[in-house]
Specification:
alpha+beta, 8 strands, Aminopeptidase
């Protein structure tokens, strides 16, 4: 798990160590990027996750069904014990939680993983999704031995496709009629970012943000 990695310790900040001008956050921040920070997802976040999962737009885009609060808590506890995934709460600089992001299906031998992102409806379309994806792929390639990070989404999910494209992901293909949601079948786009493509991206990395504040 990422919070156990010695290489990530230098990048870990507490709420009191946020950059100048930012409001103190009670959450331990374990990673940050431009405009967002990550805190380890906790069972106490279950109510937030339940609300976000219950949003019909998010449910359609991510393919998640609403769950009871107890079921969400159980899922968080289960996922926290898994060694092939890391789940984070996405925070604004003032500590406001705006989403859930995860790096799942981590294969340390092949160097592959998959990214999942769910944002609060009030915070979509403001660039936070791209900032969060940028920060997570920096972690995947900068702190973990990943060679390929994958993402999948409905071909009709133009918002997610735009976020992924801005983060450098390349669409590799379409799995036709691969998802059944609320009685309708949808095509699923498969996108990925490779290590050498990430290295070629012309943008600051998360550790540059820590140093420069930009």
């Amino acid at each position: 798990m990422i919070e156990d990695m010695a290489g990530a310790v230098d990048a870990r900040l507490t709420g009191e160590q946020l950059q100048d001008g930012e409001t103190e956050s009670p959450r331990e921040v374990c990673w940050r990027g431009k405009g967002v920070a990550f805190a380890p997802l906790d069972v106490d976040d279950a109510e937030l996750i339940q609300v976000w999962r219950s949003d019909p737009v998010a449910a359609h885009e991510i393919g998640m069904w609403p769950r009871s609060l107890s079921a969400v808590r159980e899922r968080i506890e289960h996922d926290r014990d898994e060694h092939d995934r890391d789940d984070f709460l996405v925070l604004l600089p003032d500590g406001t939680p705006i989403g859930h992001i995860a790096l799942t299906d981590q294969d340390m031998v092949d160097g592959t993983a998959e990214i999942m992102l769910m944002l609060d409806s009030d915070h979509r379309g403001k660039g936070h999704g791209t900032d969060a994806v940028d920060a997570l792929v920096d972690l995947a390639f900068g702190e973990l031995p990943m060679h390929r990070v994958q993402a999948v989404t409905h071909t009709t999910n133009t918002g997610a496709l735009g976020v992924l494209a801005r983060a450098g992901f390349v669409q590799e293909g379409v799995r036709r009629s691969a998802c059944l949601h609320r009685g309708h079948r949808y095509d699923v786009a498969v996108l990925a970012l490779l290590r050498d493509e990430w290295q070629a991206l012309n943008r600051p990395r998360s550790w540059d943000v820590l140093i420069t504040g930009r």
